Amino acid sequence: MEPELEQELIDYLAQFVTGQRLQRIEEVLAWRTRYLTVLLEDVYQPHNASAALRSCEIFGVQDVHVVELENEFQPNLAIAMGAANWLTIKRYQDDDARAGLHEAAHTLREQGYHLVAMTLHEDSIPIGELSLEQPLALCFGTEEEGLTEEVHAIADSYVHLPMYGFTQSFNVSVTVALSLQALTHRLHDSDLTWRLSPQERQQLKLEWQVNSIPRGGIVMREYARSLGVSL
Fold first, then answer.
1. Strands 136-140, 36-41: parallel, antiparallel or unpaired by DSSP?
2. Phi then psi for 64, rounded to 5 degrees?
């Protein structure tokens, strides 16, 4: 969509959104990032799937990549509390389950991401030592088994959260939350260009306004038709 049309639609839809919501959209956009992204490999338990999405949204991570191998990704909407409405979720499915994983890895690398396997592998480093000089795609695995061998093979780095008790694993949704908390704190304190571009912010502003309006998609398309544009 052309930026001029996006702005026209944003201006039109603003009349249907409360001033409080419009202000909140601007505040959230100021902290949104694509410098960090999350890949969830075969995470299927509804509680964990939804809690992971909720953590991504809370910490300002816009894009979530979902690889479905043997299990379907089915978040519990009550637990997610609408987080999916504000995220960009890319799902990878294929008759050959592993093809979806490699498609996701290829897509992320094409976008310039450094692939990080969150794992207790013997060669993993503490998350505090992970360099932020390149955009990061954090990969998280299933509740029982963790990441597959395929992800370990294609990852650029192995990283773990330090643990000091007898128990040596977190619930996957807790791992997502703690990892994002650690990295977003460092990112916000850095001089890196981690915020969204003006164009990305405009695109999301339109999307979020639509999601804030009952039948928002229909309202937007009807107005676009009045301008002679088909969406």
1. parallel
2. -125, 125
State which amino acid sits at residue 18.
T
For tokens 């029982």, name the residue: 144
* 3-state SS, residue 117: strand
Q: Is the pLDDT of residue 94 over 80?
A: no
Q: How far apart are CA 54 and CA 48, in angstroms?
A: 10
CATH dotted code for 33-190: 3.40.1280.10
Show contacts of 206-209: CB within 8 Å, 24+ apart: 206/6, 206/9, 206/10, 206/13, 208/25, 208/28, 208/85, 208/86, 209/10, 209/13, 209/14, 209/16, 209/17, 209/22, 209/25
Which residues are registered as beta bridge partners of 43? none
- Taking the model in full, what pTM does it have? 0.92
How do residues 181-197 score in pLDDT, each as one tens digit?
A: 999 999 999 999 999 99
Say which amino acid occupies 105.
Answer: A
Provide the β-strand partners of residue 66.
Answer: 40, 91
**What CA–CA distance (Å, rounded) separates 13 from 226?**
14
The helix (H) or strand (E) run that includes residue 39 is strand 36-41
Question: 105-109 contacts: CB < 8 A, separation 24 or more?
Answer: 105/154, 107/65, 108/37, 108/39, 108/65, 108/137
DSSP 8-state class, residue 96: S
